[in-house]
Structures are given as structure tokens and as C-alpha cells.
Design a protein that fits this description.
8% of the residues lie in helices and 37% in strands. It is built from two helices and nine strands. The strands form two sheets. The chain has a five-stranded antiparallel sheet with strand order 2-3-1-4-5, with helices on one face. A four-stranded antiparallel sheet has the order 6-7-8-9, with no helix packed on it. The N and C termini lie far apart (51 Å). The model has no long low-confidence stretch (mean pLDDT 90).
Length: 153
């Protein structure tokens, strides 16, 4: 048996954003939430990668882009422990966890089929009741939605 160390190599990012520590079952929800399927930049997606703290994780690298913090923080709805790394000249110049806003506008669907936001052309609006675990309350009908019930719009 050989003692050769095997590594999966992913190209280094010169400039852009790395979204790390995404739960594997949430990775493609994050892709959808950020609209990455329509992006013209180079995007690298890795799933079920080894992680010392999570066991397995997902990661997204987006080259040559600056996404507003408000957009990145939308990730906190489905991946509350995700870490954002801002890369410049191959170096991490900024690193922070996503934070859940107090109000979520037009991100999450209300689970109440009779809610006005499901029957009229209007944005959904949720207040964050708790961030750990994520619990939301609809602004219109006051239905409480737990993390496992969250459906993205």
C-alpha cells in the first residue's frame, strides 16, 4: 500500500468570492438563490468535500464578481453557517459568516395557501423569529415557518 497523499485540486481563484461551509443538501439551493445558472462568470461548484468541522460540505467559487453583502446574506436562510471569502490577487482579503436579516422580502414562499402573497401579485415578507434554528413569521398571515419547511421563491 502506497503512502502517497491524494488531493483534489481546484484551481486557485485570482479575484472573486468563495462561499464555503455550505451543507451538502443546501448547495444547489444556494446556486438557485444566487441565480448562478445565469451568470456569465466562471463558477466552480464542489459538493461532498471533506471538512474537519462539518464532515462533508459544499463550496462555490465565483470568479471576477462582487456580489452585494445583502445578496450574499440571503444564503443565511438555507445555510446559516456559510462563510464568505473575498479573494483579491489570490489572497483572502475579507472573511465573514453570513448573517440573517431581520426581514426577508421575496425570498421565501409562505406555506399558507390562503395567504394573500400566494393569491395576489405581491412580494412575500417574513420576519425572522429565530436564527438558530431558522424560524420565520409571515408578515401578512402570521404563519410560522420552520427551517425544514422553508421553500425558496
Amino acid at each position: 500500500m502506497s503512502n502517497i497523499k491524494k488531493e483534489m485540486a481546484v484551481a486557485a481563484l485570482c479575484n472573486g468570492i468563495v462561499i464555503d461551509h455550505i451543507p451538502c443538501n443546501s448547495l444547489f439551493k444556494v446556486v438557485n438563490l444566487l441565480g448562478l445558472e445565469n451568470m456569465q462568470n466562471s463558477v466552480t461548484i464542489g459538493n461532498f468535500l471533506e471538512s474537519g468541522s462539518m464532515g462533508r460540505k459544499g463550496i462555490i467559487k465565483i470568479a471576477d464578481v462582487d456580489l452585494p453583502e445583502e445578496t450574499l446574506n440571503r444564503i443565511a436562510v438555507i445555510a446559516p453557517h456559510a462563510v464568505i471569502n473575498i479573494i483579491r490577487d489570490y489572497k483572502v482579503v475579507e472573511k465573514h459568516r453570513v448573517t440573517l436579516a431581520d426581514d426577508l422580502i421575496d425570498i421565501v414562499r409562505c406555506t399558507n395557501p390562503k395567504c394573500i402573497c400566494n393569491n395576489e401579485p405581491m412580494p412575500t415578507h417574513f420576519h425572522v423569529v429565530s436564527s438558530e434554528p431558522t424560524t420565520l413569521r409571515c408578515h401578512y398571515c402570521e404563519r410560522v415557518v420552520t427551517h425544514d419547511e422553508i421553500t425558496l421563491k
